[in-house]
Structure formats: C-alpha cells, structure tokens
Model the fold of this input.
Amino acid sequence: MMQGVIPAKYRVVIAEDNAQIRELLKQQLAELGHEVVAEARDGVEVVGIVAEERPNVAVIDWGLPGQDGLAASSAIRDQSPVPVVLLSAYVSSGDPEAMARRAGAHAFLAKPYLIEELDEALEQAVERYERSQPNVRFPVGTDMKQT
Done:
C-alpha cells in the first residue's frame, strides 16, 4: 500500500435508475470513505454485478425498473449473499423496513436522508449480515471478491 493512502471502508455497488441521484449517492459514499466499484441502473443488472464484483455492501433503490429493489435483494440473498441497504422515497403501504428485511435487505433508508444516516445504514447492514452469517466476517477495507 502506498504511504498516506487510506483504504476504503467498504467496496460498494449502487443501483439507482436516476442518474442525478446515482451520482449524488456515489459522491456521498466517497465522502464517507467508501469505494463505489460498480453502478447499476436496474434490478436485473445489479444482481449480475453483485455476483461478479462481490462487494462488501450493495445499496439498492426500491423503485428500480424491470426488477424492483425488493426482487433484486431477494435474488442477491439467494445467489450471492452480501449486505444490502434498500433505499426508497415512497412506499405505498405497510412497514417498508419489514418488507425490505423479508426480501433479504439488511437495512432500509428512506429518501431523503442525511449523509450520516447513509453511513449508519451501511454499518447496520454489515452488522446484521454478519449476525446472520456467523462464519463470515470482513474487516474494513477487505475485498470480498474471490481471486
């Protein structure tokens, strides 16, 4: 490692269909010290990217086109389990956090949010994931991708 370079806290994949929101999310994650390793614009795309990239965390918008964030979270849980934070600006009915958890997400964050809340949601997702996978631990800066 180069002297003076601090490794990223987490390698993150983001899925957001709105380009402006995706760019803002990318900037916020970088400001928090995370590395965005890939971006997706729909639910099908994010499932494939997560399987390939093996990030530490995936941040997924609920309202993705094609396959929504709930379905993508469920597919990730079944195919390539990683901690998932599900974002949403609007949920029509019910308890969105409970719905997100049932689908396989480890944390839910309502938009709009403060950057501190994004950081807390990432940590919560990692902690819940680790509790659900007792033999899995990844320290900050770890690359989960198999080489």
About this structure: The first strand starts at residue 11 and ends at 15. The chain has one domain: 11-113. The chain has a mean pLDDT of 87.
